[in-house]
Amino acid sequence: MTSYKHAIVDGTKIFYREAGPKDSPTILLLHGFPTSSHMFRNLIPALAEHYHVPVMPFPGFVPTVPNHYHLVAPDLPGFGFSDAPDRKLFRYTFENLSKAINRFAETIGLSRYAIYVFDYGAPVGLRLALAHPERITAIISQNGNAYEEGLSQGWNPIQKYWKEPTPGNRAALRDFLTPEATKSQYLYGVQEETLVAPEAYALDSALLARPGNDEIQLDLFLDYASNVALYPKFQEYFRTKQPPLLALWGKNDPFFLPPGAEAFKRDNPSAEVHFYDTGHFALETHTQEIASAIQDFLRRKITRQPSAKK
């Protein structure tokens, strides 16, 4: 069962979801904008305890062998149920978010783990990999971009703000923070909208509407340029370290395009890429398919490695 906990990191409460045996390989799940660890609510139980059938030694023998993982899914500072420190005390940059999650992982005793990165979770998680490559057992990128060819035209208004950080260009990005925009992120490119739980985008919208949260999100829109500037270093990491890498992509994502997924194989030829006929929030419609792909991948890549728990 999933537990709902919090850790205090430099005076900030970090909320997180946890499930699975702590002596099993750990997967650190990192969410994106505008959501929280809530996006992993269905994936966590699917990975925390799973049974597969090995080769049968004789006809009629059907054993089940447990294949557990330890799942940890924090809410980034300013998101979900984690604290949102005052902008005068905490500068909302992706570097600072990454440092906070690194300290969070250390605080709860994680020393080795795979990372599942989605959207904003990609630059946060990949910064962890650059800083501590010895800790990363594998990378699962679900619409988590690291290549310029993966950026769609949907980024044009934000890129304009990077080039000209004027009050007018900042104000124009408030359209991304409306309930309508959040709902659209969940439904765009989805073949069967009835599979998307309405409480998912309703919760995100409610948390975005908290006093002061709009300015936090606008700060992060501006700082996303620092992630694009780091793409060459992320790509060098893929080339030199060759981490086990699985890309799982909603191919109809309006923000991160399929070429961004295919590009992983350019720097890491052993990377595995899967596309799904859905949008940005692929877990809303394809949890079982994605969970099965992850189980197969990790069983081959990291199950035999030492525990990720200190």
What report would you give on this structure?
This protein has a single domain (3-152, 227-301), classed as 3-Layer(aba) Sandwich (Rossmann fold). 41% of the residues are buried. Mean pLDDT is 93; it is low at 51-58, 60-66 and 304-310. The strands form two sheets. It has an eight-stranded mixed sheet with strand order 1-2-6-3-7-8-9-10, sandwiched between helices. Strands 4-5 form a two-stranded antiparallel ribbon. It has 310 residues and is an alpha/beta fold. A hairpin with a 2-residue loop joins strand 1 and strand 2 (12-19). Helix 2 (94-107) packs across helix 3 (121-131) and helix 3 (121-131) crosses helix 8 (213-241). 39% of the residues lie in helices and 17% in strands. It is globular, with a radius of gyration of 19 Å.
What's a quick, concise take on this entry?
With 310 residues, this protein is an alpha/beta fold. The chain has 11 helices and 10 strands. 39% of the residues lie in helices and 17% in strands.
Q: Name the CATH superfamily classification.
A: Alpha/Beta hydrolase fold, catalytic domain
The average pLDDT is: 93
Question: Portion of residues in helices?
Answer: 25-40%
Report the strand count.
Answer: 10
Give me the CATH architecture, please. Answer: 3-Layer(aba) Sandwich
Number of helices: 11
Q: Number of domains in the coordinates?
A: 1
Q: Which blocks of ≥5 consecutive residues have pLDDT under 50?
A: 51-58, 60-66, 304-310
Using the coordinates shown, work out and report the CATH topology. Answer: Rossmann fold
